[in-house]
Amino acid sequence: MKPAILEMYDKRPRTLVRNTILFVLMAVILVWSWETMDYGGINENGAVVARNILDALIRPNEAWLFNFTATGTSIPLLMLETVAIGFLGTILGAILALPFAFLSARNIVGPVMSNVGNTIISIIRTFPIFILGLMFIRVTGPGPLAGVLTIGIASIGMISKLYVEIIEDIDKGILLALDATGATRFQKIRYGIIPQLTANFISTAIYRFEINVRNATILGLVGAGGIGFTLIAALGAYRWKDAAAALWGIIVVVLVIEIISTKIRSKLVSGE
Amino acid sequence: MNEKQKKRSTGDSESERLKRPRPVKAFLDRLAARNLAHRTTTLSNGATIVRPFSWSLTNSLIILVIFLFFWDMIVGAYFDKYDFMIFVRRIPNFLNILQKMWTEFDWSYFDFVVDPMVDTIQMALLGTAIGAVFSLPVAFLASANIVKSKIVSGVVKTILSFVRTFPTLVYAAILAFIFGYGTLIGVLATAIFTFGILTKMLFEVIETLDLSSFVAIEATGASKGKAFITSVIPQIMGSFLSFTLYSIEINIRSSAILGYVGAGGVGIMLDENMNWRRYGNIGVILVVLFVSVLIIENISRYLRKKLS
Amino acid sequence: MIQFSHVSKIYPNGTVALKDVTLEIQQGEFVAIIGLSGAGKSTLIKLINKMTDVTEGSLIVNKSDVRRLQGAELRRFRRRIGIVFQSFNLINRTSVINNVLAARVADMNFFSTLLGLYSRDDKLLALESLDNVGILEKAYSRADQLSGGQQQRVALARTLAQKPSIILADEPVASLDPITANQIMKDFKRINVDHNITVIANMHHVDMALKYANRVIGINKGEIVFDGPSSQVNEDLLKKIYGREITDEDIMFKKTLGE
């Protein structure tokens, strides 16, 4: 055998030891996590309930599902409210995120300020959605308006994070080119920066809208509007058919929104 | 003539249709003509340039109409019922809570938070791991280039869309009635949610894979299974691990509220302390949550960076 | 030894790819198959390791009746036959040596394959194969970061790691530039001579085929119209094989044919 080959053999990356350590580490973490599992709540009733829920999903309460007028029991109206909360909340969040994003973008404010901004964004993200919901209910009272404000504040974190990435990706060459034409500061922002940002910003907001509609379905749990209250109340009273109607409402609306949102976003990105 | 036109012409003949006065169409035609004229520029050398029709104005109008409709439905309806000044006067309530989280902050509560926070992290980790284990094989079933049958991958994809419609909390709320209260349902709910999003991210990667190496390895005399393990798995392992770490980040946050439906963890304490208006305790929990998320996100980000 | 006798291949859609092919290839020959695209060159190659099935006739490769081979037996048969593709077919995002080692999994147990545990002998064999095609120093680079020519060398090393008696090559240099193509063909030639490995290559470019192969098989519309030493090939024969004049497109280096 040629010495060069043996030499190359000795230079091989030793991944086995590293991989084994990583694997053992992962196993230890999982075994440690398993310790949290508590099966105390399981009883023979569970199977019956599971069957009842599946039965109900096949035959949900149609009176609720196809009722377009009654307050509180009309699934279409409740889902409309849920979507409205998600929609208004997204617009609120997308607007509120703008200052946070511009004040945290490294290429605009520099590294120190950017770190401060990112920390503030992280702090806002720490507030769980229900805590925000309950805090806003102290202002508006229970109802969908509290939901809108909650969704708005809760989406600031993620939206501004994505905004920051978009801003930091800006192509600076265009600004230089505009400089060469003698453009003013305002003109540079208007023609050099804004066009680069809008499509991606809108795409981000639409993406978050999908998530927000899903989140709006659970806000009812703390009284902040949407279909959540009806769903939890029906589950709590073992009214499976009513709960199933609410679940179907969520499925249909979320699926439709996902399809539309994917279409719009792919058009936005492809620049049509 | 395509199917659609055929169908249309069976009801009433073409000539009959043309005779009817069509004010709406005439109006739209006029509008289109004016728009076209508006978009046309004639250059000095006589050449004309037609700017393509821009949908952005139309789209903005649609968004505006939806916005006004929803605004009226929620904000308008609210201020029909309540005076605006009442709303303004109650804004300090929100700030008060924030302030109390700070002024009534009491570190001695920390001892009560540690155990539930550890539970929350464990639920998230275990749930993510279980979801991830199931997502890998199902992602292959959902990939049209792997299973070859469009029906199979289509059905799997549709089921996955259904799975993804519910947030973790809705799964936990339902599972609580089947498995009783406790961390078990938190783990299961997290696993189902993770499975849904992870599988989608994975099959999107798998469908863009170059499978030519699979053919080459099979041609060396390896069985299909071995060829798959050597040629396809290494190509997606990086994405798989990176997506899984990303899911952990999402799941830590979402499992913090699972306690509201009885799934254990720090959520129960959030619920109790909000009810008792012990905002100082909430402050302690939020700080612990903030630090935990920060640590886990940074570990995860470090590992993801190393992977790519 | 490879023996085709009266072999025909008809695809399920009715296309006749090969008609009544009879030929014999001895161990250690360097055979180039030329003809228009769609003439059946690719099919002829793919029949040999049963990537596609013979419809009629008999095909004996290394004393095995290819039509009868199935399952484990087919896989064992394929271990001694290497194949190189036009598009290299390497595993992306994976190191060069792992690509070469992939040729060894056929002989390994399932567990070792799953964990990617290759033996010292296999690793040395893989490095030796890489050295054989002159890219030993790239062993631990990522395969998709190499140039086209280097990638094709990795593919060639992968077949060498199979310790094959036959190497099939389906348009091995068609997507490479002329200089690189020439070097790759030299590698094929050296391997053919040094290790007495039969090389059967589909060639799009006539000049490359004539330069490196000892024997040329011309196919036109699924039928063999010429089979003989490359020295006998002349313009008239080429016209018969291609059914038209030879154009610049069929030649990689224009001057070679004029010599």
Describe, in short, the structure shown:
Chain A is mainly alpha-helical.
Topology (SSEs and partners):
The complex is a heterotrimer of chains A (272), B (308) and C (259).
Chain A: H1 3-10, H2 15-34, H3 45-58, H4 62-65, H5 75-102, H6 106-126, H7 129-140, H8 144-168, H9 173-180, H10 185-216, H11 228-236, H12 240-270
Chain B: H1 3-11, H2 14-19, H3 23-39, E1 40-42, E2 48-50, H4 56-81, H5 84-103, H6 110-142, H7 144-147, H8 150-164, H9 168-179, H10 183-206, H11 212-218, H12 224-231, H13 233-255, H14 266-275, H15 279-307
Chain C: E1 2-10, E2 16-25, E3 30-34, H1 41-48, E4 56-61, E5 64-65, H2 71-78, E6 81-84, H3 96-101, H4 110-115, H5 120-132, H6 148-160, E7 166-170, H7 178-195, E8 198-202, H8 206-212, E9 215-220, E10 223-229, H9 235-242, H10 254-258
Parallel strand pairs in C: 3-8, 3-9, 6-7, 7-8
Antiparallel strand pairs in C: 1-2, 1-4, 4-5, 9-10
Helix pairs in contact in C: 5-6, 6-7
What is the 3D form of chain C?
globular
Residue fraction in strands of chain C:
15-25%
**If helices are DSSP runs of H or I spanning 4 or more residues, what is the number of helices of chain B?**
15
Order of helices and strands of chain C, N to C?
EEEHEEHEHHHHEHEHEEHH
H/E series of chain B: HHHEEHHHHHHHHHHHH
Biggest β-sheet of chain B, characterized?
2 strands, antiparallel
Domain unit count of chain B = 2
Give your account of this protein's structure:
The complex is a heterotrimer of chains A (272), B (308) and C (259). With 272 residues, chain A is an all-alpha fold. Chain A has one domain: MetI-like (MetI-like fold). Helices cover 78% and strands 0% of the residues of chain A. In chain B, a hairpin with a 5-residue loop joins strand 1 and strand 2 (48-50). The longest helix of chain B has 33 residues, at 110-142. Chain B folds into 2 domains: 15-78, no CATH class; 104-307, MetI-like fold (Orthogonal Bundle). With 308 residues, chain B is mainly alpha-helical. Chain B starts with a helix and ends with a helix. Chain B has 15 helices and 2 strands. In chain B, strands 1-2 form a two-stranded antiparallel ribbon. Chain C has 2 domains: 1-80 and 167-172 and 199-247, P-loop containing nucleotide triphosphate hydrolases (Rossmann fold, 3-Layer(aba) Sandwich); 84-163, no CATH class. Chain C has helices at residues 41-48, 71-78, 96-101, 110-115, 120-132, 148-160, 178-195, 206-212, 235-242, 254-258; strands at 2-10, 16-25, 30-34, 56-61, 64-65, 81-84, 166-170, 198-202, 215-220, 223-229. Chain C is globular and about 55 Å long. The two termini of chain C are 33 Å apart. Chains in contact: A-B, A-C, B-C. Chain A binds chain C through residues 1-2, 4-6, 8-9, 11-13, 16, and chain C through 97, 117, 120, 123-124, 127-128, 131, 136-137, 139-140.
